[in-house]
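U., I forgot to send this yesterday:
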Amino acid sequence: MKSLFEQFGGTYRKENDYAIPNLEMPDTGNFEIGIYGQQHLYFLQHYRRVTYTNLLTSGKLNEYLVKIDSQAQERFFRIVEQMKQEQGITEQLKSNNIIEWIRRINCIRQQVEEIIFKEIYQ
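Result:
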């Protein structure tokens, strides 16, 4: 009688007196995961263990994290641009008073990062 593993097309190799299943991890590609993807990975590992395990065992974890990271970066830049327009931060300000422009841009970036990280931890 075949094992369930064999019924689904699995094969074994013989090592000493043991039958070892021939298991291979799916090709996950070579993904570079940014800061937002890494933060979401931490969140999954610590607060959503079942989701993390399902993504990991299905071989879809890296692809998922790259997608989350990409979406978060796009959202980051979109919100920064909106806030720059709302606060009247222009190239004119940049050329007239670079220190003030940097101060205001850094303030916006910090605010937007807080928004994005809050969304990642949901």
